[in-house]
Amino acid sequence: MSINSILATWTGKSAYWFLHTFRGGGSSLPGKLALKLDPAILKHLARNYDVIVITGTNGKTLTTALTVKVLREQYPDILTNPSGSNMKQGIVTTFLTAPKAHQKPLAVLEVDEANVIMVTKYITPKAFVFTNIFRDQMDRYGEIYTTYQKILDGVALAPEATIIANGDLPLFNSKQLPNPILYYGFDYQPDGDEHAPANTDGLLCPNCQHILHYRSRTYSNMGKYFCPNCGFERPQLTYKLNALTAMTPTSSDFEINGQAMHLNIGGQYNIYNALAAYAVGRFMDVRPAKIAHALSDNDEQVFGRQEIFHVGDKDVTLILVKNPVGLNQVLQMISTDERPFSFAALLNANYADGIDTSWIWDGDFEQLPGLKVPAYISGGERYKDITFRLKVAGVPTDKLTIVPDLTNMTAEIQKLPTKQVYVVATYTAMLQLRKQLASQGIIDGGMA
Amino acid sequence: MTYTLKAAHLYGDLMNTYGDIGNILAMRYYAQAVDATIDVDLVSLDDTFDPKKYDFVLFGGGQDYEQTIVSKDLQTKKAALTDYIEAGGPFLAICGGFQMLGHYYIGAHGEKIAGIGALDHYTLSQDNNRFIGNITIKNAETGQTYYGFENHNGTTFLGEGERPLGEVEQGNGNNGQDKSEGVIYKNTFGSYFHGPILARNEALAKRILKLALQRKYPDADFSALDTLNEDLTKNVQVKP
User: Fold this and answer.
1) What contacts A178, CB < 8 A, 6 or more positions away?
2) Which of A195, A204, A358 sits opposite B149 (nearest CB)?
3) Which of A213, A393, B35, B102 is in the most buried spot, having the most CB atoms within 10 Å?
């Protein structure tokens, strides 16, 4: 242990103590200070840990939380980073502030795609989990191939770590890697032959550049893909979803490798997250029945991204959206609700939302008018764009209310004709709405 | 519907990176006002493009990798697309699609990638820079202002016989130097605008829609489009 790393650790811990005690927060500053004194501080801090790195575009946070739950069935000491602290400074802070661990503790880390290499420079993980890579706010992240390459640049420093990857995504089968790879995916539908919708990204066969077909498809460009031209196809799955028995907006029932599972959160995309957590659990020798137990637990803290609160007699579900694949999955999940519901879409275009709003046109809002939706709200700073999007999708004007100023949202929600209300919002629109709700005592302050 | 337009979405499965399909959705929305509809064919790799079959063509932008694949296949459609453009077929090309109608562009790794030279522009690349942000231009012919979002590394230089779609008022445009943005050549419109351009610019959407309708139905009256004015708030409750 060098003097630098001791000093850096002490400084970081002190900063955390100060911030935590007097300011009630502080997630990246302690890491930032420690990194200034010792850029290689992670090497020192994480030296005793077995580390599992979870990365990808969508589902990092929930996959990390579910993985921690699954592993806790068997391993008492698990360190994890809070949602949003997935870049270098946040990860350093996580280790700095870890409680003293016994024996060989585990760390399950959500890591931003571009920051994988910042971690592997100093830590050799035991495993990587690749959830998916989709188009995501391209003004910030770039193209899917670039994003995958960034991850692989980090993985190249740990060629012996096992990769646990979503086998339904063609991109994760596009490069030969020295690492052992285990794939998970959906395998419950009979084989057919279908195309993905035209406005889907990532449809080229990585071998021969023809358009991929699907024997069955889940969503976006994921499924049991194959290339009719060269025979490239989905790899063998080690962990399979072999039955999908029920889906509602708030739960899913399915089987993985024959083990029945109940998940207290809706959406097909969350089943992928559960599959990833299952795969890590099995990789770490947690028994299937224990994994099922961990996943069925109704833990509100884990499922915070799909927040439910009450405005008057309304049950409002607030969901963050940031890219077309995520949005379409949310719409799919909402469509499983058999009750009539109202729908609100709030669009901002600040840096954290993505300053380009073009992606809303790849969202399948066209399915909404066919559902039992008697009332719509469009709002946010870019209310003109989202209002026009809904009108083009066929939302009748007499069912639509425009709420440019989100401080009026609670009043408008109360006037809606249904008990069930779904609000999809971009990041800063969500923050503005939460601030409003907090000021009225409807929710606790702060970000979930 | 009384009138039906046939649109080709060129490489829609490979070149639809920023909601480009919204251009067709917006046109279809305005078309309702004159009792018209738009059917869309996906025309992609190994498909034949029949210039006589279509009333409108959309060619969007793609990711670098996809564009290199499209560039090769596009050569097989070069003659047919050139015929369509020269015959005055309405065409909207965005970002990569705009670049590929010209002579060539420079790819992400510095390689020169062939376009089809149907239009007389060419595209260079910038070192480690992209033009990203909101952009406003003014169309000289109509005085209309168009709003969009640009996100491109390429710098495009127009050739003889090409007019810009507009003069840059805010943002960078084709190359950040000559204030030009996009292109107009016959009934072909090119632009770096995402947004999508026709969803955010009603006047341009109606202009291109009317071109397509009048070309197919020369005796019909579509002047209703001239007075149509999309009022977002019409029949809608607004809580300011």
Assistant:
1) A159, A160
2) A358
3) B102
d(Cα A222, Cα A218) in Å, to the nearest integer?
A: 6
Using the beta-carbon criterion (under 8 Å), do B13 and A211 form an inter-chain contact? yes
Cross-strand pairs, A344: A377, A423
Residues 6+ apart with CB under 8 A from B109: none
CA distance B125 to A69: 48
Q: Which two tokens stand for residue A389?
A: 């999007």
Model pLDDT for residues A392-415, shown as the tens digit of each residue:
999 999 999 999 999 999 999 999
Counting other chains too, the contacts that B212-218 makes at CB distance below 8 Å and 24 or more residues apart are B212/B5, B212/B55, B212/B56, B212/B90, B213/B3, B213/B5, B213/B31, B213/B34, B213/B36, B213/B55, B215/B55, B215/B88, B215/B89, B215/B90, B215/B187, B216/B3, B216/B5, B216/B55, B217/B3
pLDDT digits (tens, 9 = 90+) for B51-81: 999 999 999 998 888 999 999 999 999 999 9
- The question of ipTM being above 0.90 is answered as yes
**Contact status of A359 with chain B (Cβ, < 8 Å):** yes
Burial class (CB in 10 A: 0-12, 13-18, 19+), B118: buried
Q: What are the angstrom distances between the C-alpha of A313 and each of A195, A341, A412, A421, B147?
A: 44, 13, 13, 11, 41
**Distance, in angstroms, between A269 CA and closest chain B CA?**
21
Check B42 against A198: CB less than 8 A apart: yes
A432: Cα separation from own chain's centroid: 21
- Of A136-150, A391-405, B102-116, B167-181, minimum mean pLDDT range: A136-150
